[in-house]
Amino acid sequence: MGPKWYNSLRVQVVCLLTLALLPLGTIAIYQTNRVASEAEIKAELALLALTERAAKAEELIIARAIGAARGLAGLASELTASEDACVDYLSTYTTGDSEYSFVAFLPRDGVVTCASDGKTYDFSGWPNFGPLMEAGEQTIVVNTQGPASMQPVFVLSEPYNIDGQFAGLVSFSIPHNTVPQINGKFADLGLMELVIFSDDGVILTAKNGLEAAAEELPANRFLIDLASGPDTSFRGLNESGEERTYTVVAIKGSPASILASWSTAGGVASRATDIIKPAVFPILMWIASMLVALMSIYTFVLRHIARLRKDMDNFATHRTVSTSNKPISMPNEFVSLNENFERMTDDILRDEAKLENSVREKNVLIKEVHHRTKNNLQLISSIMNMQIRAAQENETKQVLARLQDRILSLATIHRDLYQSQNGGRVDVGALLREIVEKSVEVATETDTDLVVTKDIDPVLLFPDQAVPLSLLSAEGMTNAMKYLGRDPEGKLWVRASLKRDGSNCTLTLVNSIGDAPISESTGLGAQLINAFVIQLGAKIDVHHTEEFYEMVVQFKAAEFVPDTPDF
C-alpha cells in the first residue's frame, strides 16, 4: 500500500495556509495605513491653518507695530528735533482704545526725552539695553513690568538713523492683556492654549495667562528649538502629563512664533485617530493567520525537524541512533528523510570501523618500520664498534667513533618514533638531554670537575626536523667537548639550552675555551652543522671569545605537510 496523498507535507501546509487571511489582511492594512496617513497629513494641515487663523489678530497687531515703528524711524530726524512736537505726535499712538501702551524714541545713551506719556526715562541700566544697542536691529523682548503701563508687556524695537548714522531704537510696548484675542469657536475645535513666544524662547503672551500657559507647554521640548524650525505639528505630553497635539507657526515679519495646544480628546486633533481605529481588525486578522500558519508549520515540519536534529546530534556526539517509534502523524517526506538518515548512519558506522582498522594496521606497520630501522642502525653501530676495536690508528678510531655517534643518534630517533604516542612526533628535548649526557660521559674520563648546565624544554617535532636537529646537536656537543678548556677562573663548563616560544625554537650550546688545546680540524663538523642548519630552515649565529664559544640556532617548528599523492 503506497503513501496516502493527503499525508503529504505540501498538501497539509497548503490546506492550513488557505485558512489564513494573510493576503486580505495585508491589503486591508495597506489601504487603512494609506487612508490614515492621508488623514494625518490633512489633520496636520488643518491644525496649522487653524493656528494661523487663531493668531491672525496677533500677527496683525505685531505687523502694524512693525509698520508704525518703521514709519517713525523714517521721521526720527524731524521728530527728535522738537521734544514737544515729538511727544504730541507719539501720544496719538496710545490714546483711546489703542493696542499700544507706550511708544518712545530710545537714543543710544538710554535717556528717553521723547515718549508717548511725556515723561523722561533712563534705560541705560536696563539689563538688555547694552545688547540691544550693540545689535542695532529689529527685536522683540519681554518686560514683566512696563515703565508706563506697570503691567507685563513685550517691547518691539526698530532701529532709526539720523544723518545716516545709527542713533537708537523706536520702541513700541504691547501689553499682554490685549493679545491674543481669539474666537470662541476655536475652543470648540479643541484649542487649549495659544502662546506667542520670541525667537529666544521667552513667552510674550498667552491666551490663559503666563502661569497657565506654563502647564500647557510640551514636556521635554524647548521653545527656542521650536522657534528656529519651520511650521510644524507634533504630538506629545504637556507639563501636566496630558497628551496634546501642538502646532507651531512663525509670525511673518517678526522674530516671534505662535504655539497652539490642541486637545486629543475631541475636535480636529482626535479625528485622525478615529480613522486609524479600523486598522485594528486587519491586524488581528493577520495575527490569527500567522498563528494558524505557525501551528501548521510546527505540527507538520518543525517538531519533526527538531527530532531529526536531536538524532543527528546524538549520532555526532555519541555515535548512537535513536530506536524509538516514529510519530504516526509524520508526513511522508519526513518518513523518507528519516529512513535515509538511518541508512546513512549505518553506512558511516561501517565505514568508520573499516577506517579505524586500516589506521590501526598502518600504525602497526609504521612502528614496525621504525623498530626494524632502529635495530638495523644498532646492528651497523655494533659492526662499527668491532671495526673501532680492530683499527690500529687513533685517527681512524676517532673518525669511526664520530660516525658511530651519528648512527646511534638516528637509531635513538627511530626508537622514540616507535614508542611515540604523539602522532609521529619526537620529543627532541629528551633527545638533546641524552646527547649531552652521552657526549659528556665519553669526554670526561679524566676530568671530573666539569659543570654541565641543561635548560631544555620538551619540544615535539616531526622527523623531518627532529633528525637534522639531533644530528646538529651531536656535532655541536662533539665540537664543544673537543675544544673544551678552562676559563680564567679555572672552571670547565658546558651549557645546553632548548627553548620554544610559540612556533619559534632556539638551540644554544656554550662551552668554556680559556686554555683549550689547539687541535687540528678537518672542517667536516662545520660542514655537517651548516648542512643540518639548511635542512632545518634555521639561522645560526656563532660567538667566539677568549673565554667561551657559543652556537645559537633559531628555527620555526614546522607543521606536518603530507606528500603529494602520486596517482
Structure characterization notes:
The protein is an alpha+beta fold. Helix content is 50%, strand content 21%. A five-stranded antiparallel beta sheet has the order 3-1-7-6-5. It has a five-stranded antiparallel beta sheet with strand order 9-8-12-11-10, sandwiched between helices. Helix 13 packs antiparallel against helix 15. It is elongated. The C terminus is likely disordered.
- Radius of gyration computed on alpha carbons: 52 Å
Distance between the termini: 50 Å
Tell me the total number of β-strands: 19
Low-confidence stretches: 563-567
Shape: elongated
What's the average pLDDT?
79
Helix content: 40-55%
Structural class category: alpha+beta
Q: How do the strands and helices of this protein lay out in sequence?
A:
Layout: H1 9-19, H2 22-54, H3 56-74, H4 76-79, H5 83-91, E1 102-107, E2 111-112, E3 114-115, E4 121-122, H6 129-135, E5 139-143, E6 153-162, E7 165-175, H7 185-188, E8 191-198, E9 203-206, H8 210-216, H9 223-227, E10 232-237, E11 243-250, E12 256-263, H10 268-276, H11 280-318, H12 332-390, H13 394-419, E13 426-427, H14 428-443, E14 450-456, E15 460-461, H15 463-482, E16 492-501, E17 504-512, H16 524-536, E18 539-544, E19 548-556
Compact overview of the structure:
The protein has about 575 residues and is an alpha+beta fold.
Task: Name some characteristics of this structure.
567 residues; alpha+beta; 5-stranded antiparallel sheet; 16 helices; 19 strands; disordered C terminus
